[in-house]
Amino acid sequence: MKVSDFLKEYNVKLLKGLGQNFLTNTHIAKKIVERADINENDVVLEIGPGAGTLTEFLVLTGAKIIAVEIDKRLKPILERFNKYDNIEIIFVDFLKFDVSVLPKGFKVVANIPYSITGMILKKILFSDFSKAVLMVQKEVGDRLLLPPGADRNFLSVVVQSYTMVRKVFDVSKGNFVPRPKVDSVVLEFEKTEDFKYDIKEFWDFVSKCFGAKRKTLQNNLKRFTRIECFSKFDLKKRPQELENEEFLELFETFKGCK
Ligand SMILES: C[S@@+](CC[C@H](N)C(=O)[O-])C[C@H]1O[C@@H](n2cnc3c(N)ncnc32)[C@H](O)[C@@H]1O
Q1: pTM exceeds 0.80, yes or no
Q2: What atom of ligand 1 comes closest to residue 114's alpha carbon?
Q3: ipTM of the prediction
Q4: Contact (CB, 8 A) for 110 and 203
Q5: Which of 94, 96, 122 maximizes ligand 1 atoms within 8 Å of its Cβ, making it the mutation to test the pocket?
Q6: What digits encode the pLDDT tens for the residues 173-208?
Q7: CATH no. for 3-191
Q8: Cα(212) to centroid of ligand 1, in Å?
């Protein structure tokens, strides 16, 4: 059955506030799932299965699928997966879901609700995931990939420092119901083994460095640390101009500066 048929049959009106633009193109869903390179020993988290377009392909991989959906109205539509024993659908707000119950190295595949992208990324990055294939709003995804000098934000720095992040493909508005105002992009994040810091501390540090993006590093740093420690850096630069490696050096210096 098509997504629109499910919605009609179960009389579900999609809610903008929950980012409910459901993917209708099954070729795209298949390609997203293939990109995650899933085998039957994997545990895969899906955030927001919606009407189950991605879930259909996830469940066929034979991996253990944990799908976390906030909207209980979708229960009757998702009940068709009850016939599989490798899927568990949990109706709860993902932001309140305890990801520590998932085994180390779990994967994430999701077309996420765009209004909470930052919070979802934070939760994934702070978890024991190994790889995530996520559809996000195109503008947000493209910004995550920006190199130094461009209009990037603290999330671009954190994500590029902590993971190998790559663009998979663009997805245009016409592939969803209802049709959203924005285009989308699928990104792949692979955790790198060589990041030697505490990701939570690094996230906090980079976010503070970008506190006032238009201001110099000096002006940002002096609000929360002793500026004398950073004499070897060019603090006249703005945070978005720094190379990722420079941010790591800056963080190293910050840690030694307390
Ligand atoms: C963009 S839709 C994607 C639906 C489906 N995966 C697809 O690709 O068609 C986002 C989904 O996330 C769900 N959602 C929104 N906020 C959520 C939250 N905090 N926790 C879990 N699911 C959420 C929505 O109800 C919706 O099903």
Answers
A1: yes
A2: 1
A3: 0.99
A4: no
A5: 94
A6: 999 999 999 999 999 999 998 899 999 999 999 999
A7: 3.40.50.150
A8: 32
